[in-house]
Specification:
16 helices; alpha/beta; five-stranded mixed sheet; Aspartate Aminotransferase, domain 2; 2 domains
């Protein structure tokens, strides 16, 4: 039977301690034991089903982790306080002083800043490459390389990584493939395509209501257990723990993710096709002119479409700013960072979410100052939205 990530979430069954259809929230930072020996065994990791301290684990975090592991098709998962709280422990756990990472050059600005500016303090170096060029990826691998890092769909240029080919390359060299799947939950299932570890910022589409910051690391039980190890686990010792109340909130929202992703994708495709017909420069994986359109189709879970993210080039930063301000004034969305909200969000990433990347590198990768990144919302009548957006563009002479 074909893997369907939403079915895996639906098949999980949790009950609250009093029979509630939602699991009870473990609103405790610490847990009691009837026997001192049980506490010692739990601290050493030898006691299954017991809880010690919520930085280690909690029932609420484990419920959410189990659901996310099911969604991604991984053995286990560890939820974190933020997307960066998932990315940084993963890479710190995999790499030691003197090790090397090959990373996509088009990634979230915070990830870029960590790899470029922070990781070298610990003797970890990174080569940034065009992830769509497998020859360049292969050429960047050295004897010290431990990780290939990429995003399924890159932020903000929406380049699509060939996860199957990258996985084969990683296995050939005995290294790990880590994939940030934040832009494409349900659309793409990287573990099933050969990735070793999948990361999400739960803040975005998975939670969907822009009221929570969170992250998750999905991988083998062995790797997730290593992250939680009390002696040398990066997630344990760096402390990016998610609050139980937030875990419970995300778990509830996760149950509607399949409905929301279908609508995000449907709306984004409609706008992309319309604006392409109008002659705008559009970047969207669902358009046939996207360089990796066929690659995306080869990897995606078809019923969830091509995702809710698209980008347009307004021609200049001045025009981009004017357009975003006008669209916000007319209630077509919010000029804001982040993504996955019920309302459309837009920003000029060169001066916002990708501002950590130097201007010369932005230009080299094709990130123009007029680029606007859109997270398309759940609008009921997307044609109405299109007509209103088009009117804004006509008034500003972008169309």
């Amino acid at each position: 039977m074909k893997f369907n990530p939403a079915d895996k979430i639906q098949d999980l069954q949790y009950f609250g301690e009093f029979g509630g259809v939602n699991p009870s929230i473990s609103d405790s930072s610490t847990y009691t034991f009837l026997a001192a020996k049980s506490m010692m065994d739990t601290f050493e990791g030898n006691q299954e089903g017991c809880y010690l301290y919520s930085r280690h684990s909690s029932p609420s975090n484990l419920y959410l982790g189990e659901a996310l592991a099911a969604m991604e098709g991984s053995e286990s998962a560890n939820v974190c306080a933020s997307g960066m709280g998932a990315i940084t422990p993963t890479l710190m756990q995999m790499c030691n002083q003197g090790d090397h990472i090959v990373s996509s050059r088009t990634i979230y600005g915070g990830t870029y800043a960590f790899l470029k500016n922070f990781a070298p303090k610990f003797g970890i170096q990174t080569s940034f490459v065009d992830i769509t060029n497998l020859e360049k990826v292969a050429a960047a691998i050295t004897k010290n390389t431990k990780v290939i890092y990429c995003e399924s769909v890159s932020n903000p240029l929406l380049e699509v990584a060939d996860i199957i080919a990258l996985s084969k390359l990683a296995k050939k060299h005995g290294i790990q493939l880590v994939v940030d799947n934040t832009f494409s939950p349900l659309n793409i299932s990287p573990i099933k395509l050969g990735a070793d570890v999948v990361i999400h910022s739960l803040t975005k589409f998975i939670n969907g209501s822009s009221d929570t910051v969170g992250g998750v690391i999905c991988g083998t039980k062995e790797f997730v257990d290593s992250l939680r190890n009390v002696n040398d686990g990066a997630s344990m010792l760096l402390g990016p723990v998610m609050d139980s109340l937030r875990s419970a909130s995300v778990l509830k929202n996760l149950r509607t993710l399949h409905i929301r992703i279908k609508k995000h994708s449907e709306n984004a495709l409609h706008l992309a096709q319309k604006f392409e017909q109008d002659g705008l420069k559009i970047i969207y994986p669902g358009l046939e002119n996207h360089p990796q359109h066929e690659l995306f189709k080869n990897m995606y879970n078809e019923e969830y479409g091509f995702g809710g993210m698209l980008a347009i080039d307004a021609g200049s930063l001045e025009k981009a700013d004017e357009l975003m301000e006008l669209m916000q004034t007319r209630n077509l969305g919010y000029l804001a960072v982040s993504l996955g909200f019920y309302k459309t969000l837009f920003n000029a990433p060169g001066t916002a979410t990708s501002s950590e990347i130097p201007i010369e590198e932005q230009k080299e990768m094709g990130l123009t100052d007029g680029l606007i990144r859109f997270s398309i919302g759940l609008d009921n009548d997307i044609e109405r939205t299109y007509q209103a957006m088009k009117q804004c563009m006509l008034e500003l002479k972008i169309l």
